[in-house]
Predict the structure.
Amino acid sequence: MDYQFAAIEKKWQKFWAEHQTFKAEDKTTKPKYYVLDMFPYPSGAGLHVGHPLGYIASDIFARYKRLKGFNVLHPMGYDSFGLPAEQYAIQTGQHPAITTEANIATYRRQLDQIGFSFDWSREVRTSSPDYYKWTQWIFIQLFNSWYNKTADKAEPISKLVEHFEKYGSTGIDAVCDEEVLSFTADEWRALSDNDKQAELLKYRLTYLRESTVNWCAALGTVLANDEVKDGFSERGGYPVEQKKMMQWSMRITAYADRLLKGLDTIDWPEPLKEMQRNWIGKSVGALVKFRIIAPPKPSPVGRASEESAAKVSPTGGDLEGAIEVFTTRADTIFGTTFLVIAPEHELVEPLTTPGQKTTIEAYINQTKKKSELERMAEAKTVSGAFTGSYAINPVNGEKIQIWIADYVLAGYGTGAVMAVPSGDQRDYLFAKQYNLPIIPIIDIQNIETEADPTKEGRYINSGFINGLTYKEAAATVIAKLEELGAGKAKVNYRMRDAIFGRQRYWGEPVPVYFKDGLPHLIEEKDLPLVLPEVDKYLPTESGEPPLARASNWKYQASPKSSPKERTLKEGEAASLSFGEGRGEAYEYELSTMPGWAGSSWYWYRYMDAHNDKEFASKQAVEYWKNVDLYIGGSEHATGHLLYSRFWNKFMKDLDLVIEEEPFKKLINQGHIQGRSNFVYRLIDDAGQGTNTFISHGLIKQYKTSPIHVDVNIVENDILDINKFKVWRPEYKNAEFILENGKYVCGVEIEKMSKSKFNVVNPDNLIERYGADTLRMYEMFLGPLEQSKPWNTNGIEGVFKFLRKFWRLFHDDAWNFNVSDEEPTKAELKSLHKIIRKVEEDVDRFSFNTSVSSFMIAVNELTDLKCNKRAILQDMVIILSPYAPHICEELWVLLGNPAGTLSYTPYPKFNAAYLIEDEFAYPISINGKTKINLNISLSLESKDIEAFVLANADVQKYLDGKAPKKVIVVKGRIVNIVL
RNA sequence: GCUCAGAUGGUGGAACUGGUAGACACGCAGGACUUAAAAUCCUGUUCCCGUAAACGGAGUGCGGGUUCGAUUCCCGCUCUGAGUACCA
């Protein structure tokens, strides 16, 4: 029979599903291999041809590994909490669970028809209570943990409490809030429970804090930094403003250094590692305190005393009378000629002298008005204002001016810098603009036209470091600052703690209730805390999150609380209401978790997806360990991929998992872009659009406006005019100005999206060519990691290849016809070439080149008229990861039991079949190939040289001249230098 | 601005550690089969000179270098894409 792909594919997809062919084993002697795809958010639009690219690659890899004898875990699931379902719910009133369910069904149907070898028995959905129970459980573990810097790991909060009870706060080195209390053990014990809890909250790995958040009024929620682009929400493009809010945060900064160091241990693309490094933004430097000279009073005494300087500090404590700056170049401190603080800095007001008040206020107002975008656009210019106050450089006692400027960011470091105009370009521009001194501090520094940040040369104008090199100077300055009590070495990170609350409905509820204004965990046995029903998915009139709409949604203190909990609650016991199991009702936390919560640990759930006692059994985690190969887009570099590493490290600290890093090897598949087509509408003199459309080649002669046109009614950029007229009613009477009788459309490469009419749907292609063709064509398109626009033009070639392959097994009348004859040398050579080639290609994820190699092999075998079982059976195995359906069918036709192909051993490569006696040596003269000569491979270089020089054709090229040199590379080339 | 990736025929791309540049496919041109079309098959297809072939010349973004030999390594530049952005 002819190649009936539709019937074959349907048949085998059904077979695989019914027989659970791809179910990973939990007990086996086989080595394990874990191949993971980034699970999709099931959007309403379904899959377009770009989505399966990575899935096809991982599926080929997973299938290949099974042939190679591995127990492969290759699961799939859905990241099913998220904004779009909720926004749809707001518009339609339909529960997001219903739309999500419908979208998942579409995704599943589309995925199934591509023939993936997923183990669907392990499917997870982040929005399912069975799953988010464990997301909440991990939240509880985070809440119950603190980061011990001495041990460099997370530890139970109970250990911290023990320490406080015995020794007070001394001896604790933790990653915690800035303003923690110092206390003795007695003082700790004297605190009320509430005060204790308030204090502990400053240590917990997830904690509540008033933070400045990205508030998006249109979406009614808080967004993470990576969800905001240029001051607008990534989703929807609504304006985002800064707002102060009580928020759950994750102390990811505790792991900053481990997240950075771990990058060196994993096999990830370098650009992606670089993005994470930049995001973490480690800089090694020093904190330096500059004492403030009080603003001059309107009194006859010109210079203020030190006592009055102390009074300028509004807060007292550490900052008393000083501005603290962070610098990575403490060695340049003698070049400091002024200080600059951010306009938002808390000392701006006390430092401003009455004389400068108007200037400073005007400047602050001006910066406030500037949007993020404007500040970026002006990156080249600097502006600022003088506060009127002065500070003292601790190393030389110089009196320097204190300025404010918006090039200093309040959110980084201490929000204040020591300006060294000779070494920093921004400081240099600032000094030039406001006529401040510029002092060169290194002998070879050239500061004629711009700052010179060199570290070469010797220091000058620099007191006790004069004559030293950079290395010596840096260490000496920091030592001196420490001695003076004016500074210390400090590592600073750009990364901030991650905000963990969203004022939305469609997310995991936070397993917390509030008592006396403090958060308390609900008990583990009460998990999951299920998302309540609400009447509307909008914030309340008073601005509370949607969960505030849930009626009777309150926490009831449980009667069966653990003894420990009970002692903690002792104080309240009297106030609890009477009655069995009837606690007082408390408010639950009303915000939900962010989108990244559920995706930060899901790969563990696949290991043991139906466990209702644990997130995954110890045994399963010990067997599967971590993900061997992870394929997904690079857009998750500083979101999902960073948070996942963070949670993994935390879980490792608690001995819940055994690997420090979750994803050993990562591949970023490229993005398939859309290829949009345009028609050009003629604009009349009045500036109105007409009903006439100009072909692309002629648009220069007219005034036109481009309009996206559906790519499905365009072929090879030629518009199908009849289809265009019926595409939309308003084009029914459209007229055209053609070139060469055709309407040529314009082309642009853009993101694939509905609104641009450039979406190519896999369903149509599968209907026309089959899934095996689609799979191989997507791989054939180019290197996996490269982004490229979708172009269906070459798909015919792949389809023809599969038909040709099918034909090898059939005679002219399409009868299955395979011979048992011994294969010839040439046939074995073709086979073993492809055996090795595919091994090499899969190992380096070069799937496009193996597709062409398959074509070569099938072309060769077709030319050889080979229909021998000994060759074709192995061909079926090798091709099966790429085109599984056709191969399953042929496998059975060859007489093998159905369903065994996926686990049959990959053919063994035998180099003996590739050994040649002769090689057609390219003979080149001065590096230019002239002719090829067949020479026995057993000849040694010397004999080859003699043979070549004796050749008549070569003699002709030599033209009687004696060669200066002859280079012979055995088995490669002969080059004659004249 | 900085960081990273990339630039090869009409198109997608191949050439893995320096060794025959353009594999494989698309497209295009010509041909076979056919009343015709579709499908299928065959031939050609980097560019230039030449009637065609032989033959000759140029050629992997641009300019230089190293080498017997460079798409590959080094230096400088141009352009494209991605990320990031006053990070002290």
